[in-house]
Amino acid sequence: MRSWLENYVVPLLTVVAFVLIWQIAARRYPPEQFPAPSDVVLAIKELSDNGVLWTNIGISLARFAAAYLMAVVAGIPLGLFLGRFTRCHRAIDPLIQVLRPISPIAWFPLAVLWFGIGNAPAVFIIFLAAFYPVLLTTISAVRGVPAVYLKVSTNFGAGAFLTFVRVIVPAAFPGIMVGLHIAVGTGWIHLVAGEMLGAQSGLGFMIVDARNFLRTDQVMAGMLLVGLLGLAIYKAMKTFEKAIGRRWGVAA
Amino acid sequence: MRSWLENYVVPLLTVVAFVLIWQIAARRYPPEQFPAPSDVVLAIKELSDNGVLWTNIGISLARFAAAYLMAVVAGIPLGLFLGRFTRCHRAIDPLIQVLRPISPIAWFPLAVLWFGIGNAPAVFIIFLAAFYPVLLTTISAVRGVPAVYLKVSTNFGAGAFLTFVRVIVPAAFPGIMVGLHIAVGTGWIHLVAGEMLGAQSGLGFMIVDARNFLRTDQVMAGMLLVGLLGLAIYKAMKTFEKAIGRRWGVAA
Amino acid sequence: MSETPVSKIQLRDVEKRFRSARGDQQIALSRLDLDIKAGEFVCLVGPSGCGKTTLINLMAGFEKPTSGSVLIDGEPVTAPNPDHIMIFQDYGLYPWRTVLGNVLFGLQARRVPAAQAREKALAALEMVGLSQSIDKHPHELSGGMKQRASIARALAVEPSVLFMDEPFAALDAFTRLHLQDELLRIWTEKKPTVVFVTHDLDEAIALGQRVVLMAPQPGRIQKVLEVNLPHPRERTDQEFATFRKRLFTEFHLVHQQAAAVEYQI
Amino acid sequence: MSETPVSKIQLRDVEKRFRSARGDQQIALSRLDLDIKAGEFVCLVGPSGCGKTTLINLMAGFEKPTSGSVLIDGEPVTAPNPDHIMIFQDYGLYPWRTVLGNVLFGLQARRVPAAQAREKALAALEMVGLSQSIDKHPHELSGGMKQRASIARALAVEPSVLFMDEPFAALDAFTRLHLQDELLRIWTEKKPTVVFVTHDLDEAIALGQRVVLMAPQPGRIQKVLEVNLPHPRERTDQEFATFRKRLFTEFHLVHQQAAAVEYQI
Amino acid sequence: GGAKVNIKVGYLPITDHLLMIASEREQFKSVGIQPVKFSSWPEISEALKVGAIDAAFLLTPIGLTLRQKGVPVKVVLLGHRNGSAITVKNSSEINRIEDLKGKTIAVPSPFSTHNLLLRKVLTERHLDPNKDLKIIDMAPPEMVNALATGRIEGYIVAEPFGAQAEAQKVGKVLMLSKDIWHDHICCVLNVRESVIAKYPEAVQEMVAGFLRTASFIETSPVLAAKGSTKVLGQRPEIVERVLTSPRDRLSFQNLVPNKKDFAATQDYMIKFGVAKQKTDLAGYLDDRFARKAV
Ligand SMILES: Nc1ncnc2c1ncn2[C@@H]1O[C@H](COP(=O)(O)OP(=O)(O)OP(=O)(O)O)[C@@H](O)[C@H]1O
Ligand SMILES: Nc1ncnc2c1ncn2[C@@H]1O[C@H](COP(=O)(O)OP(=O)(O)OP(=O)(O)O)[C@@H](O)[C@H]1O
Ligand SMILES: [Mg+2]
Ligand SMILES: [Mg+2]
């Protein structure tokens, strides 16, 4: 009863309070500058009635899924490899280190050059943002595999392949999951940036487009949706991660 | 001798190899589209001779430092508070969760509205990017303070203030450091984005400006510098973190 | 009012239930009575999950009984008290403070003036043989030295009761023997009341004036053994062996009960 | 060539040095000789840092001696060998596999056909009394059950040598006693050669046909004690007490040396 | 001819690029026009530069610079004439160009026609663009809010951002660009040379279609404004206002590229330090399609 209050009612009240404050604060500005929550809700309704909204959400989710999948498919094997072969890792580490702090946004010109416009560069930007967390956590997960697991494996005469597939990969898995989780966050945050690149659809495009029309209400509607969807993806991921953790006995 | 080879010579060779491949790959494109490393070096030289480069680096570093400091100054106390008072945290958590996945870039319109142009919105964008990691890791660091530390403190009759200042804060410190570290990364990555916002200086502006002038070589020079500076800041942070860790007995 | 000498620690009809995650209640301790005299050294032993930690936490004020009463010096225990210090298996030292800083913490919490606090802290560290290491941080110490530091921190505030929950369990056998001897020396000198949880039978016999043997499900006292040997005790003595045999036999019983439970899981 | 019965494990003039982080060499083991017969149960005891783990790692092939030779069955040990299985204090179970899956791992590594592997694994689990829990994951087991699983994993591949490095140190006293008895039962049945590291004197005397007492700095063998009592041994016997006393006395010596070192730190 | 030639034409959702409604209303036989909307000049020019799009409406100075950097593009048609405005904040403080002294004025890019127009009018009124006021770059969508919140005192940019400020009553038009430089050129249609060489008929048909649309806009501005929603997305009233008040605020007449206009633009670029050398106009301008279609 009490925990129900604390877990649902109080947070709901906070959200309501926040919306109220926002509504009142918005009165000080014309809606073109700083729309009130009511304006934003109307904007969402308008976009949804157009049908624009659902298409854009679908496209964004598809782009995100594609980019994320590619980051996972590229990052995990590379990470497993570099984590296992420390020398190779040490050799290419400086490159990773220099490329990583470069904002995905700074990659725009090259993204257009290599991938043109439309889906590909958007996917590339999101990919870039998601790739590094996956890669780096995978590397450290592999390096963090308890020595005793490897000792046991060698002791029983398991070959390199069996050790890799049956010991290192599953042992690194919970660590990799953390990376996948972080990557969802960073990838999603760069969705808007990615879709500014000549994309003709998607939530990011919708925001940019609304900005061009000075439809601040639609801009904020887009932001809100990006936030809510991001939260939903994040929660889904967390649930998945917890399930894995329980199975692995890490979180239990 | 051998470790010297592995730690310095091999990585250097990798970098050299990367530069060579880049140089060769760049031949396939006109330099306006995909400049070779040599073009980029010339561009850096040109920018540096202009004096533009150093001013911009200085300004970017200053903006980054200001935004980062603000994120730290706002994030740590709030995180300490929310970490300590779990109910407050649970109450405002939904807000944090929805606002967090919104790309700093999506905040552009509001940033201009609230902060105008020039330094303030750039600082705001970087601040936003750095704030969440600081806040969230501080919260979890506080919640992760080993129960035994608090038990000892209560047992010896330490009051709430002493416990907070002398136990919780230092106990959470290593965890907070990790957050500060992550925040350097995310903050720096949004430097370019932040400086696109009507700023008339800084590395981000330099890249945008070079883009306006269709100077891809200067764009890549800017990217390279952003990468290198990011790496330098990151390394400095890491060293600091390690020193703290050693002092605290965590990494030792 | 009563004329009989009042016990230092008095547990009457103490019951402690926990609500598990699945929501069902679990009886950690069931209607338990125990009296401990001032200056007495009592050891609690018993298989895992029999409620030793729960019991010592109740006495130290970290938990409240579901029913029954826990009194120290005739007063009900409602909260932790700086006169009754708990020593933990994992030391509970603050890694960011030096050894001296850790010992000073308890005194600072009680607002002892700096100069006096320092004096007391140094005396306590002297007593546990850590005078050489006062400026080290915990991570620079061996396990034994850490536990010494934690004991010094407790001694510095001159508590009348020391609660110790498996304080030596993480140490190797050699260090453990050493620290047992040190603890006895300190106890003989200061005569605090000591409640000492262990699952090492030899440790219990080497230290306790009384050994309280507990049994699980529900947590309860199975047997109380008086070990009326003078301190320090010679661990390889004939008399020691006699007590050892008695305790082992009792334990075997309890142990089998516990094992039966383990296999049910 | 030689007519004398060859030992199962033979260490000759074994020295092991480590280079510390600061670059100076440290002698972990110094010119050590030891012979272990086939089917013998040998316990290694000694204070922390005396090189017990280093020694057992050398025999198991996880480390190479700096000089001298380590032979098993007359062959130099160059790498870990599935015929010589090490059992670790922290079990080394794979948390993502069930108990059965863990036991199967060793057999899979040796490419035993699936049906046969399953049979062997179940037999090994039966032997350690885990038949009821084959589908559980390690995190669902108590410490004692985990160590049983790890022993079953070793037994399944029928090794001729079992190396055990403080296998029961993390368990509580009750479980420890229980597992000691189980181990002895298995050993009596299968008669593998067992090298067992412990720092619990009673454990060493309860288990070992010989107890090798080591001393630190440099790591060396101080004394070898033959415990010629039949198994299973009654821990509270008079005879047991005699061996106990002898070992304690020896230990006290070593212990004091070690303590002196601790204080120098 | 079997399949249609597909030409990707980049544009920005500004009224200057209203010709893009041709993709909606014209029936092309041999060509398909695929409009690609961008939100900033660097993005659209990068896309054209690397060939991600085949053609684009670009500001004249940007096109000239691209060409000078060796990007193989040619101008086949002007996008419009006039069409911009200096908008200032809605107060009695600024009523003449001279009042801009000491103020902060935003332009969309140093490479914009607007930058040149602003500097031109300032110099003519004896103000030094580099000393007497502050000219800053700003993304057009931010300009209205920046003006409303007093971060800047004015801006010059393509429509509808001037009209938007008027509509929101945060700004007023100080001067239309046609009054700075009568019938100036601004955005021009750049096409990649490879496309021109390979599909001259397609380009011809496209240019013809754009010109037909131009006359349609000239004759029926209200209808054109109504039909612009899909391509531009702006509110039709705003577009209508830009087209009609006054009538030549934005003009779609006389769209054949000619050297004189470009040469004048180049002169200003050199004068105001936006370019160091001139582009060879003979190679850049390709007026045959437009002349044929007229
Ligand atoms: N906070 C709690 N919530 C729910 N159950 C608890 C809690 N603390 C203890 N228990 C349960 O109470 C019983 C007694 O636990 P306790 O920790 O006191 O045992 P113990 O004798 O100290 O065991 P050990 O030797 O393993 O330390 C156990 O069954 C345990 O699961
Ligand atoms: N990999 C290593 N590198 C450097 N020194 C080592 C290494 N392994 C062990 N040593 C040193 O060798 C000595 C013997 O260590 P070892 O681990 O064998 O002791 P031990 O008897 O097993 O101690 P414990 O009872 O604490 O497990 C110690 O001084 C230790 O510091
Ligand atoms: Mg306990
Ligand atoms: Mg060891």
Automatic annotation (TrEMBL), chains A, B:
**Domain of life of the organism in this record?**
Bacteria
Which InterPro entries does the UniProt record give? MetI-like, MetI-like_sf
Task: Report the SUPFAM superfamilies cross-referenced here.
Answer: MetI-like
Q: Which GO terms describe its cellular component?
A: plasma membrane
Any idea where the ABC transmembrane type-1 domain is? 57-237
User: Which membrane topology describes this protein?
Assistant: Multi-pass membrane protein
Which family is this protein grouped under?
A: Belongs to the binding-protein-dependent transport system permease family.
What is this protein's name?
A: ABC transporter, membrane protein
Species for this entry: Citrifermentans bemidjiense (strain ATCC BAA-1014 / DSM 16622 / JCM 12645 / Bem) (Geobacter bemidjiensis)
From TrEMBL, chains C, D:
Q: Which UniProt keywords apply?
A: ATP-binding, Nucleotide-binding, Transport
Q: Name one Pfam family in it.
A: ABC_tran
Q: Can you name one GO molecular function term for this protein? A: ATP hydrolysis activity
Stored InterPro entries: AAA+_ATPase (IPR003593), ABC_transporter-like_ATP-bd (IPR003439), ABC_transporter-like_CS (IPR017871), ABC_transporter_ATP-bind (IPR050166), P-loop_NTPase (IPR027417)
The ABC transporter domain sits at 9-241
Q: Which PANTHER family match?
A: ALIPHATIC SULFONATES IMPORT ATP-BINDING PROTEIN SSUB, TAURINE IMPORT ATP-BINDING PROTEIN-RELATED
Name of this protein:
ABC transporter, ATP-binding protein
